[in-house]
Specification:
The protein has three helices and seven strands, in the order H-E-E-E-E-E-E-E-H-H. It has helices spanning 26-41, 127-140, 151-169; strands at residues 46-48, 58-62, 71-82, 86-91, 101-106, 108-114, 120-126. The strands form two sheets. Strands 1-2-3-6-7 form a five-stranded antiparallel β-sheet, with helices on both faces. A two-stranded antiparallel ribbon has the order 4-5. The chain is globular and about 45 Å long. It binds nickel (II) ion. The site of nickel (II) ion has 5 residues, from helix 2.
Length: 171
Amino acid sequence: MAIRELRYLGDPVLREPAAPVDAFDDELRRLVDDMFQTMVYEEGAGLAAPQIGISRQVLVVDVSAGGEEGRVALVNPRIVESSNETEKEPEGCLSIPGVTEVVRRPARVRIEGFDPDGEPITVEAEGLFARALQHEVDHLEGVLFIDHLSALKRRMLLKKYRKLLAEEASG
Ligand code: NI
């Protein structure tokens, strides 16, 4: 297992639609292991393969806090059902570190996909689990959470983000 290097806002790989996986092999399982390890190391609730520079439809989420519910690796996931009911909660992204903003999303989703061994799985999720999954599925389509914000809120967030980067660069 290895911790992989993160890609950040401005990297074109984050804006590419990821390609479906067609081989459920050892390389895929190694990728999934590395993604879980990288997510834990970076203290994220989820990670999508494009965030480590791999434009493939693979995501991991762990909001389980040590329990069983809320931890999953999904390959070629599709959201097949979304609730009309929505929730607004703050959201952030490992690829845009240091900034968060409230995003409205469906409260519950049903997602179909495959596990890393190629077995079809269906995930029913609500709350934080549903939010994290939707955020990661977005990544596989080249969509970032800032795309869900109003133009004004997005501008303010990006201004803050650039300021943080500048502060970091100047030490
Ligand atoms: Ni993200």
